[in-house]
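Researcher: Re-running this chain for the archive, since the previous output was lost when a drive failed. Same request as before.
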Amino acid sequence: MKNILKSYNENGYYIAKSVFTNEFCKELINYLSTLKAKVTLPFTDVPWGYGNLLNQGPFKNISESKFVSDFCKNKFENYTFNHLYVHNKAPWVGASIEWHQEIFNVDTYASGYSRDEWDDFAQIYIALESQDLDNGCIRMFPNSHKEGFLPFENAVNEHMSHKRRVPFKVLEDLSNKYGSIDCKLEPGDVLLFNHLIVHGSASNCSSKSRKAVVLQARKNVREKNEEVFQKETHFRTNFVINALEERIDKLKSKNIYNNSWFKPKTDKENKNEV
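Model: Regenerated C-alpha cells:
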C-alpha cells in the first residue's frame, strides 16, 4: 500500500488492476436490475443512477473490502464514506461528463469542509464493465492537481444539473503542460484519484454498457454544516432554473426553426444574429 499511496500522491491518481472479481461485478450488476432508478437520462427511461447504495445489498462489501480499507486507513487513519453511487453510462445514449475538479462541489457533498482540505478526500472508482474510449472511459490530466484550485464556470449539463466546469483556455493550458490519459479499465479494476485532478468523460457512442461504482471517502474530522449545504444547493438549483428560463424566453421570442435560415443571408443579417 505504501507504493500505491506514493504514486497516488505524486500523480494524483492510481489504477489498481483486478481488485474485485468478475463474478462480484456481475453480482452487483444483477442486484441493480432489482432496483428502480432514481435518475434517468433526460427524455428517456434509461437509468443513470440508483441513489446512495453505500450500505445496500452486496454494495456494502466494497467499503468493507481489504483493499479499500487498507487504502483509507493508510491515507486518512480516521475515515468515513460520503456516498456510493453507480453511474450507468448506457450504450448509445450515455451522456458526457464535463471537465472538472471534484473539490468544486465540496459544499454539496461535504458542507463544512473547505476547498483547502482537498487532500482529506479520495474518489474510489470501480469499473463493473470494460471501459475504453468508445464507451466513455474517464479521461484526466495527470499531475494537474499540482495546479491547485482552478477557475471554473457555471453550466447546465446534459443531465439538466448544475455543474462547475473547467474553462476552455485552462483546459488548453493543461493539455499543453501535462497531456491527457484515457483510463481504460476492466471489470474489477479500481481507479483512485484525488479531488484536485482534472477529469471528465465523453459520451458512450458504442453498443457497450459502461457501469461503474463511485465511492467517496473522506477524513472524518467534522460534521455536516447544514447552513452551508442549504445555501449551496439553493444556488445550484436556482442557477439551473434561471438558465432554463432564459433559454425559454429566447425560444419564445424567436422561431429558431424558421425556414428563413435556408436562404442566403446578408452580412448585416448574420451580424444581427451573433
